[in-house]
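Study this pair:
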Amino acid sequence: MYSRPFHTHEDDGVIMKKKDKTEIGNWLEYLEFTAREIEYLIRLESRIPGSDALSRELHNIRRENTLQMAALCRYENSMVNALECDDMQCDAFYLNNHEKNRNSCMEHLRKYRELKLKVLSKLLHNRGQYAQ
C-alpha cells in the first residue's frame, strides 16, 4: 500500500493533495493486481466447455482494466496542476475530478468482482459434473 507522511507544518490543501495522490496509488495497485487475476481467470475459463460468452466478458473486463489504469495514470500526472490552485473554483474542479475517478474505479472493481464470482461459480459447477 502507498503511504506518505504528513507534516504538521503543511497546510490543509497540501495534506489533501498528498492524501489524494496516495489514494490514486492504492487504486493503481488494486488494478495491477486485478490485471494479474484476470489473466489467471482467462486461463481457468478456457477449461470450461461452451463458455464463449464468459470468455468475451473476461476479455472486455481486461480491456476496461487497462483503460482504467491508463486514465488513473493520466489523472495522477495531472495532480501537479492541482498544487497550483489558488481559489475555491479550481479546488472544486480537482475535488470533483477526484470523486469522478474514484467512482469510476470503484464501479470497475465492483463489475470485476461480480465477473470473478461468475467464473469461479461456473468452474465449481462444472467440476461437480466431472466428479459424477
